[in-house]
Automatic annotation (TrEMBL):
<dbReference type="GO" id="GO:0005777">
    <property type="term" value="C:peroxisome"/>
</dbReference>
<feature type="domain" description="AMP-dependent synthetase/ligase">
    <location>
        <begin position="25"/>
        <end position="391"/>
    </location>
</feature>
<dbReference type="InterPro" id="IPR020845">
    <property type="entry name" value="AMP-binding_CS"/>
</dbReference>
<keyword id="KW-0436">Ligase</keyword>
<dbReference type="InterPro" id="IPR000873">
    <property type="entry name" value="AMP-dep_synth/lig_dom"/>
</dbReference>
<protein>
    <recommendedName>
        <fullName>Luciferin 4-monooxygenase</fullName>
    </recommendedName>
</protein>
<dbReference type="GO" id="GO:0016405">
    <property type="term" value="F:CoA-ligase activity"/>
</dbReference>
<dbReference type="InterPro" id="IPR045851">
    <property type="entry name" value="AMP-bd_C_sf"/>
</dbReference>
<dbReference type="Pfam" id="PF13193">
    <property type="entry name" value="AMP-binding_C"/>
</dbReference>
<keyword id="KW-0576">Peroxisome</keyword>
<dbReference type="Pfam" id="PF00501">
    <property type="entry name" value="AMP-binding"/>
</dbReference>
<dbReference type="InterPro" id="IPR025110">
    <property type="entry name" value="AMP-bd_C"/>
</dbReference>
<feature type="domain" description="AMP-binding enzyme C-terminal">
    <location>
        <begin position="441"/>
        <end position="517"/>
    </location>
</feature>
<comment type="similarity">
    <text>Belongs to the ATP-dependent AMP-binding enzyme family.</text>
</comment>
<dbReference type="InterPro" id="IPR042099">
    <property type="entry name" value="ANL_N_sf"/>
</dbReference>
Length: 536
């Protein structure tokens, strides 16, 4: 069957405004509603209070010399304070970029070097991380601490009444101007900063808002490092909804308690987080009838596990979606129109969202031929939510000759134009829902004087964890070192998630193609086969 283009028209109701103008206007509109609640302390804040604090911090940042298109970085778990400098940056046309406190110094310093921030807002517990990272990146950046500090300015010192705050209005700008940088690994393996404009990100948020779910009360526990957390923030502003904040992690008992207490209507669970919920024996003791939608995505999840999620959250639509940091959500089911498909097509990623055009060119990776129904190939797409570019980096190689983004994901669509994603072309893999970039760990391995060659890949562990980082290593002649010593050497230089949990395996040579390219898949498959033989 010949290939075709899957497409859905744009929404017509998206406001043509900057993110600052949007947040300011909606905060005024819903000023008496609760904006967010800290589930740990039970403190809450209205949209009026949040807007007032954002204005004060915006004016304070201006006094510190922040000008339009300067980069402002936030490194913190999510609290009532965390989104204030984010929205304040929108108000003064600064560009926002976010880091996660669990990243290593090596990762953080690289990301900081990509964007050269003017100012960094950091939680008290992560000041040491930022100090070391700035030193390694050779950057001199203003540091502001959420909490107490004798060395740096504090967030509370910026959040003070300003004489002209009542007259404040957000700075106007071209809606195509970059306002958000979101870090992603990219298909080449090295992290990049993805540029989203006011238009692209507001469009992505409105598309999500119109997806048929109820966003009255969103449970939020990931940092703004993740694009999903940013979209949930903007989505809640659209209709004056509230977000329930519960730190960086949520245990199963807390999850069900919060759903019942705050009458949560929407949650997003990365597949790895669903296992805690489905393995929690007391889930029936909690009232989850308010929960309209459970959205899953980011990594693969089996149909078996999705059915378990359906069973635990019996009142909810459990939807598995597909999206990219470069675009936001691209395919998902609408619970108001696709009820039957949600239950019948377990494991499907849904249909294309508003403003998305998708080739299921799908594309044959060898011939570039556009494929048809139920034929697997690379997914390529265009979207009204597409990023502008990579910050200070060339992105031309990531698009084909027709302007479609080459996702590096393998998938197919069926006779109902529903998308399935089945594999990745990219060399990176995911462990506990986190992207692991092989080259980043390989660079650490090469710092060891005894390592001549090294290849890192993901070794399948189990459905919950995904793939664990594993290395095949060729030693220098005469080198006497053990696999355990190499593992410990790497562990001391990378984040916890990058540790070589799959082990280090010494080999005599690394197989390559006639053109000299490393045959990473063959190395991985040979090791898996060898381990299976040894088991038997």
């Amino acid at each position: 069957m010949p290939g075709k283009i899957l497409t859905r028209p744009n929404l017509s109701s998206i406001p043509l405004s900057t993110m600052g103008e949007f947040c300011f206007q909606t905060a005024k509109q819903f000023e008496n509603r609760i904006c967010h609640i800290d589930a740990i302390t039970n403190q809450h804040e209205t949209y009026f209070g949040f807007n007032q604090r954002s204005i004060r911090v915006a004016l304070a940042m201006t006094k510190l010399g922040v000008v339009p298109q300067d980069v402002v970085v936030i490194c913190s778990t999510i609290t009532l304070d965390t989104p204030v400098p984010l929205v304040a940056s929108f108000y003064i046309r600064a560009i926002v970029a976010n880091l996660d406190p669990s990243l290593s110094v090596r990762q953080t310093s690289h990301l900081l070097s990509l964007v050269s921030p003017k100012i960094i807002f950091v939680e008290e517990a992560s000041v040491n991380l930022i100090e070391k990272s700035l030193l390694e990146a050779k950057l001199e950046t203003e540091v502001v601490v959420f909490g107490e500090s004798e060395k740096y300015k504090t967030f509370s010192s910026l959040n003070q009444p300003q004489t002209n705050e009542h007259e404040f209005r957000p700075k106007s700008a071209d809606v195509e101007e970059t306002c958000i940088l979101i870090f992603s690994s990219g298909s080449t393996g090295l992290p990049k900063a993805i540029c989203h404009s006011h238009r692209s990100f507001l469009t992505a948020s409105y598309n999500f808002y119109k997806s048929g779910s109820k966003f009255d009360t969103i449970l939020s526990f990931s940092s703004f490092y993740w694009v999903s957390a940013m979209i949930f923030l903007v989505t809640s502003f659209i209709h004056g909804g509230r977000r329930i904040l519960c730190g960086s992690t949520v245990k199963p008992k807390q999850l069900f308690h919060n759903i019942e207490k705050y009458k949560i209507t929407f949650i997003f669970l990365a597949p790895v987080l669903t296992y805690g919920a489905t393995n929690f024996p007391d889930y029936k003791n909690y009232d989850t009838s308010s929960l309209y939608t459970v959205l899953c995505g980011g990594t693969a999840i089996s149909a078996t596990q999705l059915r378990k999620v359906h069973t635990v959250f019996e009142h909810s639509d459990v939807i598995f979606a597909y999206g990219l940091t470069e675009t936001g959500l691209l395919t998902l089911f609408d619970p108001t129109t696709d009820k039957e498909l949600i239950t019948r097509k377990i494991g499907c990623c849904g249909k294309v969202t508003f403003g998305c055009t998708l080739k299921c060119q799908i594309v044959d990776v060898e011939t570039n031929e556009i494929l048809g129904t139920n034929q697997k190939g690379e997914i390529r797409l265009k979207s009204s939510t597409m990023m502008k570019e990579y910050y200070r980096a060339d992105s031309s190689q990531d698009f084909d000759e027709e302007g479609f983004l080459k996702t590096g994901d393998i998938g197919y669509y069926d006779e109902d134009e529903c998308l399935y994603v089945v594999d990745r072309l990219k060399e990176m893999f995911k462990y506990l829902s986190w992207h692991i970039v092989p080259t980043a760990i390989e660079n650490v391995l090469f710092e060891h004087p005894g390592v001549k060659e090294a290849i890192v890949f993901g070794l399948p562990k189990n459905e919950e964890e995904g793939e664990v980082p594993t290395a095949s290593v060729v030693l220098e002649d005469g080198c006497r070192v053990t696999e355990k010593e190499i593992e410990e050497f790497v562990a001391g230089k990378v984040s916890d998630k990058e540790k070589l949990r799959g082990g280090v395996y010494f080999v005599k040579s690394i197989p390559r193609t006639p053109t000299g390219k490393v045959m990473r898949k063959k190395i991985r498959d040979d090791l898996i086969q060898s381990l299976e033989i040894n088991k038997s």
